[in-house]
Write a sequence for this structure.
């Protein structure tokens, strides 16, 4: 699958939407430090470098909690680039699970 954004990472970099939580469910705006501490542990890959072997664009992944990404903006949207080795695993889709049950 082709990259979902106008950016082509190199080597084993994986790009995901910015996982930072900027606002609580109750509408409270968080400081930069609090936003980084409250980042989401799962994300969907929107771009992969050519040396990524374990994941692909479109995979929903679980990211290591200590992963420190490089944050950047493309076409007005914020993203984070992390190394593939910081991905703990791929979360199977419901269709994948259903297909395995029907085998």
């Amino acid at each position: 699958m082709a990259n979902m954004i106008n950016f082509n990472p190199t080597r084993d970099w994986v790009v995901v939407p910015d996982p930072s939580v900027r606002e609580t469910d109750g509408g409270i705006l968080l400081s930069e430090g609090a936003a980084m501490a409250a980042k989401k542990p799962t994300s969907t890959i929107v771009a992969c470098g050519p040396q990524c072997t374990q994941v692909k664009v479109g995979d929903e992944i679980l990211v290591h909690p200590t992963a420190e990404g490089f944050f950047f903006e493309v076409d007005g949207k914020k993203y984070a680039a992390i190394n593939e080795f910081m991905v703990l695993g791929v979360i199977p889709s419901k269709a994948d699970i259903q297909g395995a049950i029907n085998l």
Q: What stands out?
A: The mean pLDDT is 88. Residues 13-101 form a domain with the 10 Kd Chaperonin, Protein Cpn10; Chain O fold (CATH 2.30.33.40).
